[in-house]
Design a protein that fits this description.
The chain has helices at 25-32, 101-104, 114-117, 129-138, and strands at residues 13-21, 40-42, 57-63, 72-79, 87-100, 125-128. It is α+β, with helices and mostly antiparallel strands and 146 residues long. A hairpin with an 8-residue loop joins strand 3 (57-63) and strand 4 (72-79).
């Protein structure tokens, strides 16, 4: 019996991508506060959450079509431990300039990025190492050294 290949392994992980809805008051409050006080994010337990370890990169994706907060990457951070009951421990800091979905669509290096292919997919989602490199070229704040 052949084993099924998983979309994500520790070797292919570039960063976790947690999602929030742009039209929700709590998301707006987090963005205004620069994500101060955010220490965990709700996630759905799957094999992915078993891969979470302290110190892994995290990106925050705001979804939806809210005019004030259009879809895109709004924050970066790190995991601060393994996933507990339905929550990923993390710290986040805002990006000076969010990297909007409209900037990512059509980029050949991001065509297979999960959140662009399946916006309503799993939370946590992820970006692989190659996608993270492309994102860091587009947004230097996402570089691992800075």
């Amino acid at each position: 019996m052949a084993s099924s290949a998983r979309a994500l392994t520790p070797e292919t992980l570039g960063a976790w991508l947690v999602k929030a809805s742009g039209g929700v008051p709590a998301t707006r409050a987090h963005v205004r506060a620069g994500f101060a006080g955010v220490g965990a994010w709700c996630v759905r337990p799957t094999y992915r959450t078993e891969l979470v370890e302290e110190g892994q990169p995290v990106l925050l994706w705001v979804s939806g079509s809210d005019r004030e907060h259009p879809a895109g990457i709004y924050a970066r951070g790190r995991t601060t431990g393994p996933v507990g009951p339905d929550a990923m421990p993390l710290v986040l800091e805002p990006l000076e300039h969010p990297l909007l979905r409209s900037e990512l669509l059509g980029h050949p290096g991001l065509a297979t990025m999960e959140v662009l292919r399946m916006p309503a997919g799993s939370n946590p989602s992820y970006v692989n190492r190659e996608h993270l490199e492309v994102l860091a070229e587009m947004c230097p704040e996402l570089r691992s050294d800075g």
